Task: structure prediction
Amino acid sequence: MTDSRYLKRTINKEEIDSTFLGEKRNLRVYLPPGYNEVLSYPVIYCQDGEEFFNYGRIATLANQLILDEDFEPFIIVGIEVDVKVRSSEYTPSGSRNEDYVSCVIEEIIPFVERNYPVRRHAQDRILAGDSLGGSISLQLALKRPDLFSKIISLSGAFYSGIQHMVAAEDDLSSLSLYMIVGLQERDYETDSGVYDFVDLNRKTRDLLLKRGAQIKYDEKDGKHLWGFWQKELGAALTYFLT
Result:
């Protein structure tokens, strides 16, 4: 049974007006136990924010880590996305990709930093994403290494577009990734085709390693589902927050 203390969570719902996307975008902001505006906190920005909170149970997990495992308190920002336009925002060749990247960098991060006491150094920002969310997280870090240096990738959908971006880089020694992929993801069907996610992740890992990135990489029994990823979130957070 889940300890009731883990369920007493403070989650603010925010809404920003995005000039780049031409629409409103919802955020969920988790505040840690003992939150105090005079302090400063590391921050995790989650793509597919609604799923990280609902299926990944990341707020409950954060409470557990902070209350029982003596983690330094941290803030989580879940960036919500409409599944109808998700691929066009998260894929490098997508029609909304450039605008989404600009929205995160120019609108969402400044909004969070105006309204919450998050730290403003690359080493104190973590990007997290599952599937295409892992790909867009890596794209953001490649575009702005001054802002982002840490990525949690859960079965990243590292198709050719993002692999080409990595290959074009010379030095990624400032970048650190936690990568996990399920061994039952070798023939996963997506809306753009059937892919071997194990192969995609191995190739992307190797490209990153050749350019000096620090990689924590693992393959485990698991499918392309939150039932697999949720169990791996604790280890991913531990890797970057301890």
The mean pLDDT is 96. Residues 4-241 form a domain with the Rossmann fold fold (CATH 3.40.50.1820). The chain has one domain: 4-241. The longest strand covers residues 10-18.
